[in-house]
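Quick one: structure tokens for this chain, please?
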Amino acid sequence: MKNFNILRTFLALFTLFFMSACNSSDAVTNSEQRCPKCNMSTHESNINTAKLHNKAKTYVFDDIGCLVLWAKDTDIDLNGSDVEVFSNDTQKYIPASNAFFTTDEQTPMNYGFSAYEKKRSSSIKIDEVSIKMLRGEHMANPKIRKQMLAN
């Protein structure tokens, strides 16, 4: 009888584990996704989010700065990758190469880069965003923040 209770408990746990594994999927909503760089939850509003489509997997980032840093850490060339950013003016995803980025906005990780589909004054392109991120020339750097806010 004791062995039967142990077996029944084991089967119940195995069934629960199996059912939870079968219910997981890669097709989760943005509110359930986490940035692979900083582990922050992505926002349902999509503002400031970026996507990298790499082979059969799509990575969603809460901030374009996280995407740049993660790509460097994982040796992924952004120029040869399918990268999309959420455009704040048109409220849709666009290719990062077509986006214009402002440098002084409030973003989840405080890097300051926000994408727009239509050109804005003093906007930069994705190549310059990458360079500035890798050099530490972003709003999360206190010295740069002070310089930018003084202008």
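Helices lie at 2-23, 64-73, 126-135, 142-150.
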